[in-house]
Amino acid sequence: MASWEALLEPLVGAGRVADLLAAGLPGIGATGSVEPAQINGCPALLVRIGGELSRVERETAVSR
User: Fold this and answer.
1) What is the DSSP track for 2-61?
2) How far is CA 56 from the centre of its chain?
3) What's the mean pLDDT in 37-56?
4) How many other C-beta atoms are found inside a 10 Å radius of the C-beta of residue 6?
5) Closest-CA residue to 17 (of 53, 40, 43, 54)
6) What is the average per-residue pLDDT within 15-19?
7) What is the number of other CB atoms lying within 10 angstroms of the CB of residue 8?
8) Which residues lie across from 5 on neighbouring strands?
9) Neighbours of 45 (CB within 10 A)
């Protein structure tokens, strides 16, 4: 069973978010990487496994 803890302060910057995701994704293994990028001018993350692009995650802002 996974143990989840909240961050005490918000993460700022794509690099810090990428580092957190890379550390928290045990399935990515030693051959995977998460790197910050910009897609159409928006912050995004590129997830590579075995050197090949696996997925692209783009930030979505929600206004309340």
Assistant:
1) ------SS---SHHHHHHHHHHH-GGG-TTEEEEEEEETTEEEEEEEETTEEEEEEE---
2) 9
3) 85
4) 4
5) 43
6) 77
7) 5
8) none
9) 20
> Which residues in 27-44 are b (16+ Cβ under 10 Å) and which e?
ebeeeeebeeeeeeeebb
Q: How far apart are the first and last CA of the chain?
A: 33
8 A C-beta contact, residue 44 and residue 58: yes
Phi, psi (rounded to 5 degrees) for 58 = -110, 140
Residue 18, classified by CB atoms within 10 Å of its CB into exposed (0-12), middle (13-18) or buried (19+), is buried
Please say if the pLDDT value at position 37 is more than 80: yes
Entry pTM = 0.54
Residue 64: pLDDT over 60:
no
